[in-house]
Design goal:
single chain, 122 residues, alpha/beta, 5 helices, 5 strands
Length: 122
Amino acid sequence: MKHNSTILYVDDEADNLLAFKVLFRRKYNVVTTAEASEVLKLLQQHQIDLIISDYRMPAMTGVELLHKVAEVHPTIARFIVTGFEELEQLTDALKKGTINKVINKPWEVEELNALFSKYLGE
């Protein structure tokens, strides 16, 4: 099956990366990394259409990461996944356009498929 869209999933938990890849690889090209510092390099190596980042990671927050991405690649859809309440930071990031959507953990496959279809035009 030919995949048209590529999704990059960034999370410092290996189990989350594996689960995401297994669940979505049949419909999308899935690229994963546990290192926020590798994202800009991956954006040069792959045609990424959508990025999902965990909020809490060791090197930087997902908002900080997606702010960097937005500066260089403003057309890529950017989602934050969080299991915590960072309401002020996330609301500010949404208002500024740093992120397009906040997804609560644990995420639901059907919810993500609907969001992917909406943001990827599928």
